[in-house]
Amino acid sequence: MFEYGGGFVQDRSIYEDVDIFAKMHEEEGTMSKEDFKTYSDLFNAMVMTPYFPKPDVMIYLECNYDEVIDRIIERGREMEINTDPEYWKKLFKRYDDWINSFNACPVVRININEYDIHKDPESLNPMIDKIARIIQTYRQVDTR
After folding, report:
1. Is residue 1 part of a domain?
2. Is 11 part of the annotated catalytic residue set?
3. Element (H or E) spanning 107, and its range?
4. Which domain does 122 fall in, by range?
5. Deoxynucleoside kinase domain spans which residues (predicted)?
6. How confident is the prediction along the chain (144 residues), in pLDDT tens digits per residue?
């Protein structure tokens, strides 16, 4: 990544995996407590160290639960549409809890209920400018 010198965008981050998905599997019984502990210990040893490169910024897209369900339906993926709504409620809550305690890098929250990139792509320009300023500031003070 670093040899290219540019920015990268990821749909998901490694940071959410333990606290959201692995923990949910452990609580649901689809991952043993021992496996969860091993996974969590490895995550902490490999990722939560000063040597692991941190993102410049975490862009967190948020909206209300009903909008999440509407977007799942609009996207039209059969597997997602047929998933038990309780799963989406649990996931929604876990993400909310997770982002409220995330501190590995600055977080920019974007409420996607306030933007309609299909009808007005320009509506995102102020947010893009804000993200650029945060990245620039973070890179100036980063001591990596």
Report:
1. no
2. yes
3. strand 107-111
4. 7-141
5. 3-135
6. 556 666 677 788 899 999 999 999 999 999 999 999 999 999 999 999 988 888 888 999 999 999 999 999 999 999 999 999 999 999 999 999 999 999 998 898 988 888 777 788 888 888 888 888 888 887 776 655
Q: Would residue 34 count as lying in a domain?
A: yes
CATH classification at residue 61 = 3.40.50.300
Task: Decide: 30 and 112 in contact? Cβ < 8 Å.
Answer: no
Residue 2 belongs to some domain of the structure:
no
The total of structural domains in the chain comes to 1
- Predicted TM-score of the model (pTM): 0.80
Closest CA to 36 of 14, 16, 18: 18
Angle formed at CA 108 by CA 110 and CA 81, multiple of 5 degrees = 45
Name the region of 10 (left: φ>0; alpha: ψ -120 to 50; beta: rest).
beta
| DSSP letter (8 states) at residue 19 | I
- What's the Cα-to-Cα distance from 140 to each of 4, 86, 102, 134, rounded to whole Å? 19, 43, 21, 10
Which of 11, 17, 66, 97 is an active site residue?
A: 11
